[in-house]
Write a structure and sequence with these properties.
The structure holds two protein chains of two kinds. By secondary structure, chain A is α/β, with parallel strands linked by helices. Chain A folds into two domains: 183 residues, Thiamin diphosphate (ThDP)-binding fold, Pyr/PP domains (Rossmann fold, 3-Layer(aba) Sandwich); 129 residues, 3-Layer(aba) Sandwich (Rossmann fold). Chain A has a seven-stranded mixed beta sheet, with helices on both faces. In chain A, helix 7 links the parallel strand 6 and strand 7. By secondary structure, chain B is an alpha/beta fold. Chain B folds into two domains: 307 residues, 3-Layer(aba) Sandwich (Rossmann fold), CATH 3.40.50.970; 35 residues. In chain B, the strands form two sheets. In chain B, strands 1-7-8-4-3-2 form a six-stranded parallel beta sheet, sandwiched between helices. A two-stranded antiparallel sheet of chain B has the order 5-6. In chain B, helix 9 links the parallel strand 7 and strand 8. In chain B, helix 1 runs antiparallel to helix 11 and helix 1 crosses helix 12. Chain B starts with 12 loop residues before the first strand and ends in a 24-residue tail after the last helix. The chains are: A alpha/beta, B alpha/beta.
């Protein structure tokens, strides 16, 4: 057991999986000698060499495209896109191929690869370094979309993603990399992809969040308990796609109220699918309209204006109170 | 049938006029008016001094992450000065000196790096695109601009900038191919600064030069000493003239070096040696040009002080920038605000008012977010 931040925890997952399985390799821009611009692949190049930790030329499409080829051959590449804003230069490889080889080859081939990307705002960074684009991947049939919220679940989910026979897009929030340390067991542990967790139990309201928004939701829940005597249940999605509808529905059947929080823009975002799933499964339990607290439907407005855009505790709290009052 | 040679062995020229030891090839020396030589020097010096000042501003948290240009001043000034105001300039994200030459006010660039998008708005009539961050993605835009200029019959040349790393991206190759097929007036100015963050050129491409990549697209490609402002100028002038005369695109590879960090979030000591950097410091473009001008008695007294004063005054104007008005984020999404965004703007205004009034909640406001972390502190 060691106290690790998310960077170290992810590094541990990569290290242990590479030690365990020589089909696992790491590829991306600056992941080798430099150890990754966020240091997630630190020391792996020294331990495993240039054949397994590949400093690629600067080309996202070829990183994913050659990764697909390696995966078709049976390797398990863990590809890093330096920040998620650059992934549109490889989106055709992800959508057209990564997600589809299983179907196209009718099961003859599959693509057991992981695509890691730092995402998210609130880190005083420029355009393409501050966005949340999980909805694009969550919408693609054939892809899995995972977003951890802390060091321990990040490590366990990355191990699960590497072992998963299907392609997993794995988002790491830049603001969480150094936000907190947690006890992370030395022995390998995994978490099931496709399962949400109850981060805080409650009976009056369901707050649904993931990634960096989990902390915002938890703080709002704490304030509701302290100031309003309301017990909010907080669900940490962990996997965006496939969505754990069962956990969501069970919670809202109990609470009758739901507020969804995400950093991605609102329209056609994950909140819409989550709300529709709750309507499907818990319509008769609902006491209030399902609410969403999200970024606005605007392109990244520059970090000087981020505070007015990305959801914060006050917005979640006020929305939760409106939902409770309804 | 025997194999036949379709293309003779190709040649790539390398152009150097003023070398790092100050040797001048006077047969190649371009004829530049003394006043223009002085302006070039001022442009390079301003780029260098602002760069140094911006690193301090970044360390103090007054601006965010940016990409310094130190070492690349000759590549930028030598090329951009061959453009007319009516020509178009398409930057990537490491062209501070070239952008200043094109008339971007210092305080505007500072605003951009402080997270204000006002800083990426070109003036009305200014034919420059804003900074583009995803590498190489702006190059097809340059080709499209050049096509449109040709279509309209305008006397316009487009110059597009990118680095060595960008030449690995598909967009670079697609842009070159289109430019060649369409024979449009565009100049691709590659600042080959040897390093794409931690990846050296030899791991970036197996080609001996970047210039030769142009030849595969039927586009002339020339390699120049990018730290020699005279060579960059001569090559750029030739390429711009070719484009203006309707003879199509050119690629110029400026062989230069990033003397500093990739961005202020980078630590180059992790991947390259001090000896290598020292070797390139000896080839500093400013030192070389200073010596050249000194011989010509064109160095102006007090120029450094004047440049520093210009920077200081601009920083004062930058510091006077008010807090960003959040609601303006809705202004430039579409020509007309659609109904759902009108609603969102009202909601946002409501939250902001509530925030100002304490929000009617005892919940502590979230602390200001920490700057992007996860990278090592920069030592150089």
């Amino acid at each position: 057991m060691a106290k690790l931040n998310m960077v170290k925890a992810l590094n541990l997952a990569l290290l242990q999986e590479m030690e365990r399985d020589e089909d696992v390799l790491v590829m991306g821009e600056d992941v080798g000698v430099d150890g990754g611009v966020f240091r997630v692949t630190e020391d792996l190049h020294r331990k495993f060499g240039s054949k397994r930790v590949i400093d690629s030329p600067l080309a996202e499409a070829a990183i994913i495209g050659t990764g697909v080829g390696m995966a078709l051959y049976g390797l398990k590449p863990v590809c890093e896109i330096q920040v998620s804003g650059f992934a549109f230069q490889c989106f055709h490889q992800i959508e057209n191929h990564c997600a589809r080889y299983r179907m196209r080859s009718q099961g003859r081939f599959h693509v057991p690869m992981v695509i890691r990307m730092p995402y998210g705002g609130g880190v005083r960074a420029l355009e393409h370094h501050s966005e949340s684009e999980e909805q694009f991947y969550a919408h693609v049939p054939g892809l899995k979309m995972v977003i951890p919220s802390g060091p321990r679940n990040a490590r366990a989910l990355l191990v699960a993603a590497i072992r998963d026979p299907d392609p997993v897009v794995f988002f790491e929030h830049k603001g969480l990399y150094h936000a907190a340390k947690e006890d992370v067991p030395d022995e390998i542990e995994t978490l099931p992809i496709g399962r949400a967790q109850i981060a805080r139990g409650g009976r009056d309201l369901t707050l649904i969040a993931y990634g960096a928004m989990l902390r915002v939701a938890r703080e709002a829940a704490d304030a509701l308990a302290e100031e309003d005597g309301v017990e909010a249940e907080v669900i940490d999605l962990l996997t965006i796609a496939p969505l754990d509808r069962e956990t969501l529905v069970a919670s809202v059947q109990k609470t009758g109220r739901a507020v969804i929080v995400h950093e991605a823009p609102r329209s056609f975002g994950p909140g819409a699918e989550i709300a529709a799933s709750i309507m499907d499964g818990a319509f008769l339990s609902l006491e209030a309209p399902i609410a969403r607290v999200t970024s606005w439907d605007v392109p990244f407005p520059g970090f000087a204006r981020e505070k007015g855009n990305v959801p914060d505790v006050a917005r979640v709290l006020a929305t939760a109170r409106e939902t409770l009052k309804f | 049938m025997p194999r036949t040679v379709l293309e003779p062995r190709f040649q790539v020229e390398y152009l150097s006029i003023l070398d790092s030891d100050g040797n001048l090839d006077s047969s190649l020396e371009p004829d530049i008016a003394p006043a223009d030589l002085k302006r070039m020097y001022r442009g390079m010096l301003l780029g260098r001094r602002l760069d140094e000042r911006m690193i301090r501003l970044q360390r103090q948290g007054r601006i965010g992450t940016f990409a310094p240009i130190k070492g690349q001043e000759a590549s930028q000034i030598g090329s951009v000065l061959t453009l007319r105001r009516s020509d178009w300039m398409v930057p990537s994200f490491r062209e501070t000196a070239a952008m200043l030459w094109r008339g971007w006010p210092i305080e505007k660039l500072l605003k951009f790096f402080a997270g204000y998008l006002e800083g990426s708005q070109p003036d009305e009539g200014q034919n420059d695109l804003p900074i583009t961050i995803p590498v190489a993605t702006q190059l097809p835009h340059a080709v499209g601009l050049a096509y449109a200029a040709q279509y309209r019959g305008d006397d316009v040349v487009v110059m597009a900038y990118c680095g060595d790393g960008a030449t690995s991206e598909g967009d670079f190759h697609e842009a070159l191919n289109f430019a060649g097929v369409w024979s449009v007036p565009v100049v691709f100015l590659i600042q080959n600064n040897q390093w794409a963050i931690s990846v050296p050129l030899k791991k970036q491409t197996h080609s001996r030069t970047i210039a030769q990549k142009a030849l595969a697209y039927g586009v002339p490609g020339l390699q120049v000493d990018g730290n020699d402002v005279l060579a960059v100028y001569a090559a750029s002038q030739e390429a711009v003239a070719r484009a203006r005369e309707g003879d199509g695109p050119t690629l110029i590879e400026c062989v230069t070096y990033r003397l500093g960090v990739h961005t202020t979030a980078d630590d180059p000591t992790k991947y390259r040696t001090a000896e290598e950097v020292a070797e390139w410091e000896r080839k500093d473009p400013l030192t070389r040009f200073t010596a050249y001008l000194k011989k010509k008695r064109l160095l102006e007294e007090g120029l450094e002080e004047a440049v520093d004063a210009e920077i200081a005054a601009a920083i004062q104007r930058f510091e006077a920038t008010g807090a960003a008005e959040p609601l303006t984020m809705f202004e430039h999404v579409y020509a007309e605000l659609p109904p759902h965004l009108k609603t969102q703007r009202e909601q946002a205004a409501g939250w902001l008012r509530e925030g100002e009034n304490g929000g009617g909640t005892k919940a502590a406001p979230r602390e200001a977010s920490p700057p992007m972390r996860g990278q090592r502190a920069t030592r150089r």
